[in-house]
Amino acid sequence: DMGGHDTYMHKEIHEQAEAVDRVLRGRIDDRFSTVHLGGLNLDARDARAVRRVKILGCGTSYHAGQIGAQMIEELARIPADAEPASEFRYRNAVVDPDTLYIAVSQSGETYDVLAAVQELKRKGARVLGIVNVVGSAIAREADGGMYVHAGPEVCVVSTKCFTNTCVAFALLALHLGRTRDLSVRDGKRIIEGLRKLPAQIEEMLKQEEDVKKLAAQYADARSMLFIGRVRGYPVAREASLKLKEVSYIHAEAYPASELKHGPLALIEPALPTVAIVPDDDLLEKNRAAMEEIKARSGQILAVAHQEQEKADHTIVVPKNEDELDPILMGIPLQLLAYHTALALGRDIDKPRNLAKSVTVE
Ligand code: F6R
């Protein structure tokens, strides 16, 4: 049942405020400015013994993991990174008992992720699952974890589960942070930011008509470039993947800082750039990157917290706490991919060559 929407993708994009409300529900502890995540099976002593965090996933779940790794580094000051599960599994990675491994999967059935979890467990590592489908193979195999409660996701292309997984990571980062040096005050600040998300998502979705008009302008592009720095970079990567999957337009994501090391050679009027420009410490650097692109007659669509004068168009996203900004910035880019695909008449819920859950290697 699509509940009045023409596609599941559209329905699922519009379910995100509710979905985020669900992942937060019952988990926030205002008294100690932290969160309760009983399913982690990780007591405070275990949490403090973690020396590193390694996040494994595929596709969109891997991108959510990149955002999660940044949140864990920022809020808990634990070195963290994300890697495609398939790569990790085949490079005979060093498995370290002081590292906390986190497997991320919407379906909980992705073969490469499951096999990575099994290999890790065979080597005595502690593995948590951040999973959407309750009782799935990865959820059962992990030592503990958290469900992201996005609800059923039918469209092959992941939207609401990405957003909820990012929120789940924010909760985990807050929890790990508060077992360490994150102050009560910062804990409160993040909790307040999390509570604002559902209303801000609704506010964002009200701009759908504007995004639709922009999508119509870019639908004839043969290729698009997505750029961002630090918090904006995984958002750029996810937006690039979303556009490719659903519209079949070639897209590439690059850190804005790397432009001058190669991709600037591509800039011309026929290659539009989408710039992710959060209002954080890197704002001026991002503006400089947009200037470089403009100087070469490239078109720019900025996704930012305020109108960007260097850009041809700006989608203005509600501002949250810096650490949580990637969550909201992803949403207009889902709409952009959706409306581009719609303008091109694509099979949105079932893109060619793709399957919802990849249970083979
Ligand atoms: C992207 C997409 C895929 C999946 C990937 C992992 O929209 O749907 O990239 O994210 O196949 O799937 P899960 O999260 O089920 O492990």
Structural account:
Keywords: Aminotransferase, Cytoplasm, Glutamine amidotransferase, Repeat, Transferase. This protein has 361 residues and is α/β, with parallel strands linked by helices. The chain has 13 helices and 12 strands. The chain has a 5-stranded parallel beta sheet, with helices on both faces. Strands 9-8-10-11-12 form a 5-stranded parallel beta sheet, with helices on both faces. Strand 8 (223-228), helix 11 and strand 9 form a beta-alpha-beta unit. The longest helix is centred in the middle third of the chain and has 22 residues, at 184-205. Fructose -6-phosphate binds next to helix 4.
Key phrases:
361 residues, 5-stranded parallel beta sheet, aminotransferase
Helical proportion?
40-55%
Helix and strand string, N-terminal first? HHEEHEHEHEHEHEHHHEHEEHEEH
List how many beta strands DSSP finds.
12
What binds here, in terms of ligands, is: fructose -6-phosphate
Q: Which structural category fits the helices and strands?
A: alpha/beta
Shape: globular
The spatial strand order of the largest sheet comes to 4-3-5-6-7
Query: Number of DSSP helices?
Result: 13
Largest sheet: 5 strands, parallel
* Global Rg: 20 Å
Parts with pLDDT < 50 across at least 5 consecutive residues: none
Roughly what fraction of the amino acids lie in strands? 15-25%
Between the first and last Cα atoms, what is the distance in angstroms? Answer: 31 Å
